[in-house]
Amino acid sequence: MDRRAKNSHPGKRAINDSELSHESWKIFQVIAEFVEGYERLVHIKPSVSIFGSARTEPGTSYYVLSENIGRLLSDNGFTVVTGGGPGIMEAANKGAFNGTSLSVGLNIQLPMEESYNEYQDISLRFRHFFTRKVMFVKYASAYVVCPGGFGTLDELAEILALVQTGKTRRIPVILVNKKFWDPLLGWFQTHLVAEGMIDAADMDLFKIAETPEEVLNIITDFYKGRSPEPTHGEKQVMSQL
After folding, report:
1. What is the domain count for the chain?
2. Which of 14, 85, 127, 212 has a CB 3.0–4.6 Å from the CB of 89, allowing a cystine?
3. What confidence score (pLDDT) does residue 37 get?
4. Which of 92, 101, 99 lies closest to 45 in space, CA to CA?
5. Residue 68 — left, alpha, or beta (φ > 0 → left; ψ -120 to 50 → alpha)?
């Protein structure tokens, strides 16, 4: 049998040179996003990445809490990094912007909306979620996860998976508002742990906080006696992100 006929598939179609060239050029878009991110964020350390819903309205309890977290972290020497959008992201950026350290927004271009908040000392624009995710992790000394939807859950799962598998260093991962997160954490325990999907020790990869002061204390206690900067060995691990 002719080898080409053997490997053919009725669902496949030929890819012309123009289409292949277009796809190949996307590689350079990705490289450009990484290069700009590294160049502009390498000096922001130590930093804390804060996540939460874009739908949270100003003046609500979650918004005010996130703004106060951003302000307290900023006044204690931490750059605050968010997704740059509205809601909780805006609140955290606003708090940091009014504090003494930098406020950073890693904005994503979305098909149906483009809404960036105005409280950003450093503002980056990303086409690709995966390059943006690397920037959230690369320079973060801690993750603060406020109430949110699919995007927030995605970022939470990302950092937990990276730490669990040893692809990045162990950093504080802080879930804000126990009442909001309790149902999910209960499911972790009764299904993921109980059915062997994760180890019981994996439940120690994160902490719960209710107030800005608790968030700050968890971070400072974690780094007591050492720098938030990664060690040489940790840098080697993180170079594989």
Report:
1. 1
2. 85
3. 86
4. 101
5. alpha
